[in-house]
Amino acid sequence: MGRGVLLLLALFVVHLHPSFERDVYHKSSRYPTVRNKEESDPNFWAKEAWQGIESSRYKDNVNKARNVIMFLGDGMSVPTLAAARTLLGQREGRTGEETQLFFESFPTIGLSKTYCVDAQIADSACSATAYLCGSKANRGTLGVTADILRTNCSFVNPENYVHSIAEWALAAGKDAGIVTTTRITHASPAGVYAHTAERDWESDADVLDDCASAQDVPIDIAEQLVHNYPGTHFKVILGGGRREFLPNTIIDEEGTQGKRLDGRNLINEWIEDKISRNVSHKYVWNRQELVQLSLSPPEYLLGLFEGSHMKYNLKADPTMEPSLADMTEIAIRSLNRNNNGFFLFVEGGRIDHGHHDNLVHHALDETIEMAAAVRRATELLSDEDSLIVVTSDHAHVMSFNGYTRRGGNILGPSDDLGDDGLPYMTLSYANGPGARSHVNGKRVDVTADEDFGDLDWMTHAEVLLEDETHGGDDVAVFALGPYHHLFTGMYEQSRIPHLMAYAACIGPGLHSCDD
Ligand SMILES: *[C@@H]1O[C@H](CO)[C@@H](O)[C@H](O)[C@H]1NC(C)=O
Ligand SMILES: *[C@@H]1O[C@H](CO)[C@@H](O)[C@H](O)[C@H]1NC(C)=O
Ligand SMILES: [Zn+2]
């Protein structure tokens, strides 16, 4: 190797580790370097390690799972977990990095591969089909095989349906329910009950946009929930999305106009269906009405708390909108009355939306909210008979980058500067609406924005896109309860419902049971 090459290599290494060369701390850093004193003692780290060993010397749990709860953090990538736990710790007055989100203490963790049959990077529809129905599909499609292409207006033959674990649970005499912070007709919750070639067909208006001239117009997702199996049998349905159920001649309780063109009021039709079946039921649209039911929920409960998605937790009026933990609790109290147990799907759906808008503070806060909902579930159920799985459908392109000192504000700029001498954010994106035009050929200093650090301030992105994209990385799967150990390893996302079914002896897992 010539001397010149070596020199170049040396320069390159220095370039990779700028903090070794220039100890530049950003001048506006508000946080002094923090050291936790006890961390200088090797025994501190040894104790931490031994606590881990002790707590994982659990006995294998090979009980049959009476209950299965799947928590889905939409877009909850692995860097999102690291950043959210740091924010949680910093809110509690610590350095932050050492914190655990509640479910990060679960005994088994695996990784799932999220690509779809026609897509390197998943959307929330094909991935929902994988993690709920156990079969990979094409992007944009729900509850159908990969023979069905997106937005095909032809009738989907039921031979092309794939069925969700909620149906497997119902067939085994269990109850089922869905809870989300998005519209209840949005891709992830719809994966529990819908069969459609297009995730965007949430109301008949959306179907007509694409299929006005089709022979048999496909049934929209809201109608499928109210009138088709298995949605007709869900004991609990909680989320947002009233507009998909109401005619466009109606303004709902909070001022949102309905979307439907067929003049139907599917909320009333849901009520009429329950009356005709002579079962106790209740429709609620705000937190107060929901909480009043918490001790004795009706047999069937429909709660729609917003016209579209529920508000971000940090922006919601807590007297009007229930938290994800509130909704999870009442769902469990309701479903747990069935002696055969239940399957419950709970989605923290707005993690994804925070990322799409480069609103990283919201993405992290919604992740913390989901961890609180998981904790609530474990307080109400025993890991002797209840399997809890926490995972995500796909990653995002947020990176956790730079060389910031311990305890540095996770929502702040890196201690380091770019080679252009300007600050950059510890949490930034490869793409999205936060991309700024260069001024006079130079990157702008986003920390000088007037609204820097506000809740609606967008962190910066490299490539300008109206919507930040998903990422293709693997996502984590956390498991607690019966057969949690099956969830270790790296596997296809479509394996997840098969593992849950095996633990519960339902659906395709039935063959595994001797009793
Ligand atoms: C749509 O689906 C129908 C029925 O499965 C099929 O015959 C047709 O070729 C599909 N059309 C397209 C454009 O894929
Ligand atoms: C409806 O249910 C109630 C309470 O379970 C029962 O007393 C009543 O007989 C039922 N009515 C009909 C028409 O089945
Ligand atoms: Zn998304």
Strand content: 15-25%
What's the number of domains? 1
Structural class: alpha/beta
Average pLDDT confidence is 93
Coarse shape: globular
The name of the CATH architecture is: 3-Layer(aba) Sandwich
Unreliable segments (pLDDT under 50, ≥5 consecutive)?
1-31
The CATH topology comes to: Alkaline Phosphatase, subunit A
Largest sheet: 10 strands, mixed
Tell me which ligands are bound: 2-acetamido-2-deoxy-beta-D-glucopyranose, zinc ion
Question: Tally of extended strands?
Answer: 17
Oligomeric grouping of the chains: single chain
Terminal CA distance reads 70 Å
In the CATH scheme, the class would be Alpha Beta
Helicity, as a percent range: 25-40%
**Cα radius of gyration in angstroms:** 24 Å
Major beta sheet, strand line-up: 5-6-4-3-7-1-8-16-2-17
SS summary, helix count: 15
Signal peptide: 1-21
Keywords: Hydrolase, Magnesium, Metal-binding, Signal, Zinc
EC number: 3.1.3.1
GO molecular function: alkaline phosphatase activity; metal ion binding
